[in-house]
Amino acid sequence: MGSIGEKRVREEEGGVGSEKEKRSVTETACSDVTDSVGDGAGVIMKALSRGERERRIADAIQTVLECLEGDSNREGLRKTPSRYAKALMDFTDGYRMSLREVVGDAEFVESHSEIVFLSNVEVHSLCEHHMVPFHGKCHIAYIPNGKVIGLSKLARITELYSKRLQIQERLTREIAEAVEEAIDPLGVAVFMEASHMCMVMRGVKKTSAKTVTMSMMGCFKNEDRRRSEFMDLVRGAPK
Ligand SMILES: Nc1nc2c(ncn2[C@@H]2O[C@H](COP(=O)(O)OP(=O)(O)OP(=O)(O)O)[C@@H](O)[C@H]2O)c(=O)[nH]1
Ligand SMILES: [Zn+2]
Predict the structure, then answer these.
(1) What structural domains and CATH numbers belong to the chain?
(2) Membrane-spanning residues where (predicted)?
(3) Is the pTM higher than 0.90?
(4) What ipTM did this prediction achieve?
């Protein structure tokens, strides 16, 4: 398996993932100050500073407020467009971080050869269909193959992909793929359980419905023993 940098190059070449994922990777490669945006017709690079992007979002939110309330100049709403723009940029900070930056050099040569399991990592993301939150938790496991990764980096990897417009299935898979790219383990497994506000606050209004998604790679995909071991740990994780 290649390095994190090689993964990005492969994705940009179109080897893995959708157009949207490729745009995300391109965006990730850009600096914090100047971002790039793609459109549906391909990747059109548009140099926009963070400030300019916030201003454009704020203008759009001003229109939203006018549609909702008419008088968007009342005291409580006056700063809402710029506040919301900043919040939205924060919710989507994952577009402006790369896997390499997130993992740093927290990969350690280590002969530990049994499962490593991190439970109850909080997940807060925005569903790409409605741009409303979904939230829950995930459990991440891997079997080292000569290297371990800093534990906090598993949670940081979760943040990296959560802070984008997502669907739960892709988020789960991207976390697993990132761990694989970072340390090339014998296997990775990710279990995620989340509640989608688009199903709770609107639409079908099912307040108790939870969605479970899993991504299994390597020995967790191919060996029943490893899969059962992971599922036992998931079942035993503190609720
Ligand atoms: N598979 C998947 N679907 C999701 C996720 N988040 C939201 N959705 C679904 O995306 C679908 C969008 O369906 P549409 O019919 O286009 O949108 P809608 O009219 O708002 O649908 P309703 O939510 O059923 O009212 C809905 O069924 C959502 O429940 C996710 O993470 N994964
Ligand atoms: Zn939704």
Answers:
(1) 30-96 (1.10.286), 105-236 (3.30.1130.10)
(2) none
(3) no
(4) 0.95
